[in-house]
Each structure stands twice: as C-alpha cells, then as structure tokens.
Amino acid sequence: MLFTPIRLGALTLRNRVVMAPLTRQRAGAGDAPTALNALHYAQRASAGLIIAEASQVSPRGKGYEGTPGCHSAEQVAGWRLVTDAVHAAGGQIVLQLWHAGRRSHPSLLGGQLPISASAVKPSLPVRLPDGPRQPPVPHALTLEEIPGVVEDYRIGAANAMAAGFDGIELHGANGYLIEQFLTDKANHRTDEYGGERLRFMLEVVTAVTSVWGTDRVGIRFSPFGFANDGGDSDPEATYGAAIRALDPLGLAFLHLIEPRVSGNTDADPDAPSAAALFRPLWHGPLIAAGGFDRAKADAALVDGVADAVAFGRAYISNPDLVERLRDRVPFARYDRSTFYGGGAEGYTDYPTRRHGRA
C-alpha cells in the first residue's frame, strides 16, 4: 500500500511516502531560502508529499539561527525557487508554518523577549551559534496581543500561497507556540485562553483556512513528546479534545509524531502508538511519523492506523528514499555532524543508489 495513491484533502499523492519537515538551518540572508534549498527539496521530489521545514511566521517567531521565514517579500521569492524546483521534478510540497514561542532567545529576536501563553520559563537551553544558552522567562501574551499573533499565521499562510506551495501544515508539536497554548505545562492562564486551551489553536486554524480553505491545511502534533520542554499532564485527554474539535472541519490531514522520536525517552515500548490511539477520533487522512521502516510502514497502512507515513532523518541521507523503499534496499547512513547549518555537505551531496550521486 505504500506505493498506491492517496488523497489528502485537495491533494492527490502518487504514493504514501511523506518527507517530514526537517530543520536544517541553511536559510540565506534575511532568513530567505536559496538555490541550495531548492536543489535539496527537488532531489527528494519523488515523495508523495514534501512537508517543508518549520518556517517562522514573524521575526519574533524565530527559534534558531538559519531557519527560513515566510513573512517577507525576500522569503517568498526564495520559497518560490523551492516550489518551482519541486514542481518541475514532479513533486508536491506544503509549508510548515511555525512560531517558536518561548523556545527562543532575545539574541535571535532583536533583543525582544520570546512570547508564550504564560510567563513560564523553559528548563532546557536553546541552541545558539555560540553554544547553548538558557532562555529567559517569556513574555505572556496579553488578550490585546493574541489577535496580532493569529494574524501573523494568516499572513504566513497567504505568503505560502504566493510562494507557490500546494498547501500548509501548522506546527502544533514539539513544544512550540501552538503546543504552549494547548498544554498545562506551559499554559497557566486563568482567562479564556487558559480555561479553554484549544482556543488559540482553533483561532489559528480559522485564520489559515480563511486563506487556503480546509482541504489544503494539515496540523502536526506530538501528543506524548517532551521535546523542547513540552508535554502535558494528561496528553490523552488534551489531544483527544483537540482532535475531536478539529475532526469536523475537513482538514487535509492530521500528522502525529510517535513518542520515541519526540523527546520522550521513557515511552513504554509496549504502549499503543499515538496514531493507533487517536485514529478512532479522526475521520480524515492521518499521517504517522517516527521510527518507520518499510515493514512498519506497510503494517500501519494495512492495519488502518495511518493513511500515509512520514520519514524524517532517513530523508537526510536518502534523496531516493521512495526508490529504496520500493526496492527494499538499505538506507544510506546520515552524518549527524552536518545536520544543522553549513552548506552543501550533508545536504545536497548524498548520492542516489542508481546514479551514485545526488
């Protein structure tokens, strides 16, 4: 089933292999994508769908050096290089819209404090060019400020459309801003955004679907992950409520990260997967991500746990991942030292099996 077509909302995928969003910190000046990024994604265009890396919707949404944005004309032009290259290679690509929230540092934000649902300081350091540094207590967004942040997402969605993407994915995972509003670890508010922790997420969904419609918008969650100091005291209840609220809207897809690849090293290996647990609550297409190989992907599809499977780190070193999966060929190994930052090395120079070069 991995190589049969699937429809995700308005998108028809030629196979069910999805390239997961991967932060690589290789944006150019002004956080704009470049021809190097276009080549990287075009090399991987045989995926049924590419979900491009997390891209900040505003300057204050940035969480790492070298991440691309989608809030300026230069960034839109850079992303157009990427989408044109992917489409020319026969692929489809959506953009992951992201706001790091409290998982940032004033040195990345022009001296401003990071923002969040509440003034709760993260316990984990932020990775900066000069090494890890502890983030400050974030600024808790006021009721007057929240609509402006929601509008940043709407503008990011409009810019993604102008850049030629086929749709968008909202980053609601891995301890970033949407998750910070969803979870009781980061959201200590006593107003309507604390009493109803789904509110911010739903307002953002409404904003971006006003641009794209519902059938070209997906959302990604990591219900049992602890990445970036995320997490919730009752994830099954919190994410069950979130998924139930989203289910009637007709979104293109729900994208769930499994626990062991989202920072939860204490995850019970015998516990049901996130996809299996929440599948009964979701009646649209579901993408499962995390630790999949060909056999596990086939099993998830056959069992109906997922409709498509996302591969992350395997795509770093295997631009021809679809072909390797189809031919049951082992994956090439990746080099962790080249994951973040740098140039072509470890980014566009991994060879394909067939041609011996990328």
Supply the number of helical segments.
Answer: 11
Q: Could you tell me how far the N terminus lies from the C terminus, measured between alpha carbons in angstroms? A: 27 Å
Low-confidence stretches: none
Percent helix: 25-40%
Mean pLDDT equals 94
Largest beta-sheet details: 8 strands, parallel, barrel
User: SSE order in H/E notation?
Assistant: EEEHEHEEEEEHEHHHEHEHEHEHH
Q: Give the oligomeric state.
A: single chain
Structural class: alpha/beta
Please list the strands of the largest sheet in the order they lie side by side: 3-4-5-10-11-12-13-14
Q: Which geometry do the CA atoms define?
A: globular
User: Mind telling me the C-alpha Rg?
Assistant: 19 Å
Share of residues in strands? 15-25%
Strand element count: 14
Key descriptive features of the protein:
29% helix, 14 strands, alpha/beta, 11 helices
Describe this structure in words.
It is a single chain. 51% of the residues are buried. The longest helix has 17 residues, at 146-162. The chain is built from 11 helices and 14 strands. With 358 residues, the chain is an alpha/beta fold. Helix 7 (235-246) links the parallel strand 11 and strand 12. It has helices spanning 35-43, 73-88, 146-162, 177-182, 192-195, 199-212, 235-246, 274-278, 294-302, 313-317, 321-327; strands at residues 6-8, 11-13, 17-19, 49-56, 93-98, 115-116, 126-128, 131-133, 139-140, 168-171, 217-221, 253-257, 286-289, 308-311. The two termini are 27 Å apart. Helix content is 29%, strand content 15%. The model has no long low-confidence stretch (mean pLDDT 94). The strands form 4 sheets. Strands 3-4-5-10-11-12-13-14 form an 8-stranded parallel β-barrel, surrounded by 4 helices.
